[in-house]
């Protein structure tokens, strides 16, 4: 028996993959439903992992938008682009709907509005609503950046503020700015050291128009995180993106509400070695700032590695240890490329 804490991207995908292979699995999710949030991009690696676990590619295509290129303007106004096979843009709610349907078609038991309130890391005993849950062979903690499991297992490895807030907007109606469609455009304002002070990104096609901005500033109080009216944020967004006022104004004018969050990371370099019965995965283990653009892909690849280990009779702890090595190597390579580019 496998218990999963958290019914987000990693937890739902893992549950469906395990149950599809006739492994009994139960998910406990604290929220009444999962699917709110903004949008994200997935590349060919993420789609390969999803398809390998049995998620139908046609279903994914039906719920997403082709993403032809990532294109960023640097300090000198030079535009740099990067095409990539298999990239697609998703509203997070649509991706979660597809993953939930995938899991619901199996014998996976998913309990929403059921928070896990305590964890005994030594024995894997779980308590939800004050009631002890059945003992399990393994517990996968996919309970996000504020993971209860990580706080209990590794209290010194807390989420850290990454120096920027992120504001996500989805326009109330599709609009067509002068930029090229089906491209994720980035406009960055850098300091003298080449570090981003602010970034404005946008994507549009005939069906949807999306935008986000990252602003360097002090973190927001918890009460100011989440859904907010656009009026509260229009002025600081425009002030932080003065190089492209027309584009920003057009996007803001067509948007009524935004989703605001503090960009945070979970340090991974000094993490304890994964050890059964409780194993962290996804953002619970290695959340990264949205600026990296790979958090969802990492969660999907975690789920794939864990599913394949459990189904194949291997060690899920060893699978996550290997995933950590891969993630750290990729982050080091990305940091070196960023230093070279600036």
Automatic annotation (TrEMBL):
Keyword Zinc: no
FAD-binding domain span: 2-310
Chain segments annotated as coiled-coil in the UniProt record: none
Record keywords: Monooxygenase, Oxidoreductase
Family annotation (SUPFAM superfamilies): FAD/NAD(P)-binding domain (SSF51905)
Pfam families: FAD_binding_3
GO molecular function: FAD binding; monooxygenase activity
InterPro entries: FAD-bd (IPR002938), FAD-dep_Monooxygenase_BioMet (IPR050493), FAD/NAD-bd_sf (IPR036188)
Transmembrane segments: none
PANTHER family: MONOOXYGENASE, PUTATIVE (AFU_ORTHOLOGUE AFUA_6G14510)-RELATED
Protein name: FAD-binding domain-containing protein
Organism per entry: Nocardia ninae NBRC 108245
